[in-house]
Amino acid sequence: MPAKLPHHDSDEAALDEVRAVYAELAARPVERDCIRRTECCQFALTGVMPLVTKGEVALMVKALRATGRTEPPKQAIEGACPMLQANGKCLVYEARPFGCRTHFCAAAGGPYARKEVLDLIRRLEAVDTDLEGEGPHKLDIGLKRMLRELKEGRR
Ligand code: SF4
Which segments of 36-110 does DSSP mark as H helices, in order? Predict the structure, then answer.
């Protein structure tokens, strides 16, 4: 069954829960300092790509649409996240996924320990279930899937 897309009130509540998770993460006393070097956005360099749940992707797509786009711009940097622009900024920084907030580069203090955020990960997984997602996907795949469903009018 194709994944359900967030457009009902209950789905909006699910997205509010994702926002609440991000807010709680920001309030945690874990010292990190993302200085937007964007190294972690260059997947081909790092060999690591964030995993995203459906609620996280839905927020990214909302932010993308708020820029007037229905698709990410042509990839600016080969092997990098599709949301990384040529100017080195994330197109959806305020709506960036959990993994982008917790897998910081060494210069920012290194990644969060899983035990520091496990409760928040569980909450994102619960939202994924509510939205009939299929569990975490690599960022590029999760984004492509949702954009394809939008294009096909399945949401
Ligand atoms: S969503 Fe933004 S912060 Fe996350 S990897 Fe992509 S460009 Fe970087």
Answer: 43-46, 54-66, 98-102
